[in-house]
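#struct-help
A.M.: can someone run this one for me? Single chain, 274 residues.
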Amino acid sequence: MVLPMEAAFFDLDKTVISRSSTLALSRPLYRAGMVSRGQLLRGAYAQLVYLLVGADEGKMERLKEGMLQLTKGWDRAQVERLVEEVILDVIDPYVYAEALDLMELHRSEGRRIYIVSSSPEEVVRPLARHFGVSGVIATRAAIGADGRYTGELEYYAYGAEKASAVRAVAERTGIDLSRSFAYTDSATDLPLLETVGNPVAVNPDKELRKAAEEHGWPIRDFHQPVRMRTRIASAVPGPRASVTAALAAACVAAVLVWVVLRSRAAGRRAARTS
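D.P.: on it. Structure tokens below:
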């Protein structure tokens, strides 16, 4: 009998990492000459507000419109290169150890791991690769024929759209949502939580905490940030780590064989001289 496939869907900001992944890029963008000093300061202020009070629908809408206008005309390839170069430095050490532990637990139990975030694909995908997830659902900006952002959205992964995208992934891959999990911090993700059989509120805002208590959903508080480079390197071993382990094992085996042969040779010499 083939058991149904299960999955765990994780929001990103304030669930897997303790800050806004998009706003965290303000300083690298400033250094690259892509935002002004004033925009950098406004980004820092927005980050502080986000950390203290979260992001309701109005704040998310303003953030979305602001980012669209800010990035209009930027070259997508340049942005992707910048994000790839700095993303670990920007996020380190803001990833929650508890989130990585949960990912590892779900992975060990055979579940697929997905990141579901309203942040842009260009930010989410590089991070997701370090987490070793099965897939990503994220916001996609429209790109013109010249490879530059048009200032419009192709897809906005927010609210009910997240739930719709998760259902589409489940239908395409055969995931049983009634046996799957979802983790998020915001009441704007209630449609996502209601889509799975095991919803979990993580560091919930006031509205989500109230909803979780009313529904009897588990509430978890993550508060242990960890150095992303060291933890993810051990949590999600890549080909380089596997090769290193294989070489180490081969070296140990060679040493053992050498010790055994040396002992046998010494034994034969002792037998001849006795």
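A.M.: thanks! The first strand starts at residue 7 and ends at 10.
D.P.: also worth noting: The mean pLDDT is 75.
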